Inverse folding.
């Protein structure tokens, strides 16, 4: 996030109260009510969650202990038996929701499908039976590499139904990135499609799966392929199976497996400060409850709402707030395959108009792109069905907030700015729209049951409006349980950065923040070597590893620089091997190489060749200086730790 954005956040002082008309019908309709819930949860967290778990979810068997906390390892609803697919589907079938649209899907070319709860249930049962037939058992891991089509959600729910853990890999990741995730998860099956539509082109997903497996993923025994784009693809006999063929054979009766509350539900890989992504582990009962409650209260969901989250199911936002949270609540969730593109800049607003969307949830980067495309696109559509807006992914700059409020929300819709992470499973800081006055740029206050604070490196709370580290002080139901197969990394990354204080463990989120005079949180962005590109997390080390895997590159240092639409953009400093000459062609080749190694989101906006990098005497790259250079700013900060000051002159001139 750029300095100027931070400046304008600091200057923006307006407060927006929940419109009375909205508050009148909201589940939580005043700050007094919010405070009551918050206090209740604070006094007796286990009791608070236990009561909700009982009331809101179906359990095959009640749990014993609500929370078993052996820091930093938590178990929620110990020995309880539950199935999230059952909670998302079966339990709605005996109610009026049976024939209510569960999933409304719009394809990029303009095709569409609506699945009622009964229909979605049937499809999930069929896919569950199909993957069982392919040898998948409770406890196995399944890779899902899909476009945004209903089968992506169906595949997740089918895995959950039989107790297999899914690991969804975003369809924009490359074959190389897919390989390392499938390897780490030791996936037995991959569910994919021939391709997906993205910006009027086919993304050849099945080809990437073939490449990934050929690169070395010996655990994969079968590939289940959904037909979407219908181009010719290679099918390996014995290993590859068409979904539509298996579907015709299997039964649609598949009772949900009784899972232990702490059984693995999914692994989702996310970037960290090393080159190797972390497999974030989420389990069943606590995740189900927390995504259910946050969806219910933050979106103030009503029976006839049509809810649309524009994320991809490949990210946590898609998991928690396209699939599990909405369906567990019996809501109607919209899924859209496309992205705004020059040929169709108003496509999002067409979807809102066509399906009379009432709740719309997107990212600041998308909002900034809409601003650039021009007000005429939303203005030309009927957006009066909207009653609530949401944002996630990065701090929202007040200009974008105000535009969103005015042009999309018609000044009548509250905006919920939700701060959370892959690791937290669900919203941590968020307004409750009928209660919380909002301030543009602030994610406001903790969700009931969440104890958040801003502290220094010693774990001491910092003063009002002072910058510090954002921490969570008490375990919550959907917290990540560990890094897959790496408890040690889990402990180091999240629980030791700020040492336990008086025996109390603090969860370190990796974000900087401050709390204002009203206790409102202002998240400032990552404080580690993780970038935020279009609301997606990307490690500087990951891009560096990708670059040095190219034979021409001797060393690379990656930073981000401010970008008007993406928030941040990748900027790489590269030292070439002696034998290679710098050229524009080589720059292009290296950019392409990063796309091949990671995916298009990691493509550097700029590559700069250099002979040396600023380093400390112990050899650590000083990224701070590189960030200044990338942003075209004066170098700020202490240079006394530098090994060779002439490097800076060189870079300044270069
Ligand atoms: C990081 C988590 C959680 C879904 C999307 C990204 C940043 C997320 C906000 C917000 C300020 C935000 C943080 C966080 N972030 N939401 N509302 N305000 N920053 O998930 O890939 O796990 O990234 O995104 O830096 O740590 P993720």
């Amino acid at each position: 996030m750029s300095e100027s954005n931070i400046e304008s956040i600091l200057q923006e002082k307006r407060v927006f109260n929940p419109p009375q008309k909205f508050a009148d019908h909201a589940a939580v309709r005043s700050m007094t009510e919010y405070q009551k819930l918050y206090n209740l949860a604070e006094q007796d967290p286990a009791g608070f969650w236990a009561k909700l778990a009982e009331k809101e979810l179906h359990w095959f068997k009640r749990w014993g202990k609500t929370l078993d906390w052996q820091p930093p390892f938590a178990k929620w609803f110990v020995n309880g038996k539950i199935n999230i697919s059952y909670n998302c589907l079966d339990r709605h079938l005996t109610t009026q929701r049976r024939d209510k649209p569960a999933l409304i899907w719009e394809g990029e070319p303009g095709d569409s499908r609506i699945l009622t709860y009964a229909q979605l249930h049937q499809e999930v049962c069929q896919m569950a039976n199909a993957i069982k037939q392919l040898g998948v058992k409770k406890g196995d891991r399944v890779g899902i590499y899909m476009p945004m089509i209903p089968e992506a959600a169906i595949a997740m729910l089918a895995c959950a139904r039989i107790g297999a853990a899914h690991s969804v890999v975003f369809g924009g990741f490359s074959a190389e990135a897919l390989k390392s995730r499938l390897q780490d998860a030791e996936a037995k099956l991959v569910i994919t499609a021939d391709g997906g539509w993205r910006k009027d082109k086919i993304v050849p997903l099945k080809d990437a799966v073939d490449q990934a497996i050929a690169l070395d993923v010996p655990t994969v025994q079968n590939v289940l392929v959904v037909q979407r784009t219908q181009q010719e693809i290679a099918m390996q006999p014995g290993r590859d199976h068409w979904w539509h063929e298996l579907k015709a054979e299997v039964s649609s009766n598949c009772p949900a497996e009784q899972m232990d509350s702490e059984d693995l539900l999914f692994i989702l890989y996310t970037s960290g400060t090393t080159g190797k992504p972390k497999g974030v582990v989420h389990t069943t009962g606590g995740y189900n409850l927390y995504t259910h409650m946050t969806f219910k209260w933050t979106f103030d969901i009503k029976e006839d709402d049509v809810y649309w989250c524009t994320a991809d199911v490949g990210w946590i936002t898609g998991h928690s707030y396209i699939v599990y949270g909405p369906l567990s609540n019996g809501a109607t969730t919209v899924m859209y395959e496309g992205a705004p593109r020059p040929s169709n800049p108003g496509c999002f607003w067409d979807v809102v108009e066509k399906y009379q969307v009432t709740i719309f949830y997107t990212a600041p980067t998308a909002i900034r792109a809409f601003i650039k495309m021009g007000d005429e696109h939303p203005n030309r559509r009927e957006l009066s069905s909207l009653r609530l807006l949401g944002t996630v992914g990065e701090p929202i700059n007040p200009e974008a907030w105000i535009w969103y409020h005015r042009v999309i929300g018609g000044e009548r819709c509250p905006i919920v700015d939700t701060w959370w992470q892959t690791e937290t499973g669900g919203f941590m800081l968020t307004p409750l729209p009928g209660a919380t006055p909002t301030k543009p740029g602030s994610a406001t206050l903790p969700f009931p049951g969440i104890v958040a604070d801003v502290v220094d490196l010693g774990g001491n709370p910092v003063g009002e409006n002072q910058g510090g580290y954002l921490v969570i002080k008490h375990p919550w139901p959907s917290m990540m349980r560990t890094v897959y197969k790496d408890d040690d990394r889990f402990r180091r990354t999240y629980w030791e950065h700020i040492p336990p204080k008086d025996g109390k463990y603090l969860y370190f989120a990796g974000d900087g923040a401050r709390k204002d005079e009203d206790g409102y949180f202002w998240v400032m962005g990552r404080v580690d070597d993780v970038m935020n590109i279009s609301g997606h997390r990307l490690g500087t080390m990951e891009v560096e590893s990708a670059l040095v895997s190219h034979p021409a590159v001797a060393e690379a240092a990656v930073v981000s620089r401010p970008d008007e639409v993406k928030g941040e953009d990748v900027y790489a400093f590269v030292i070439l091997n002696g034998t290679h000459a710098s050229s524009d062609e080589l720059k292009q080749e290296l950019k392409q190489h990063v796309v091949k190694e990671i995916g298009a989101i990691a493509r550097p906006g700029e590559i700069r060749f250099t002979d040396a990098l600023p380093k400390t005497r112990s050899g650590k790259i000083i990224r701070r200086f590189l960030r200044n250079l990338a942003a075209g700013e004066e170098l700020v900060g202490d240079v006394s730790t530098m090994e060779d000051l002439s490097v800076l002159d060189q870079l300044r001139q270069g």
User: Anything to note?
Assistant: The CA atoms of residues 102 and 120 lie 7 Å apart. DSSP finds 21 helices and 29 strands in the chain.
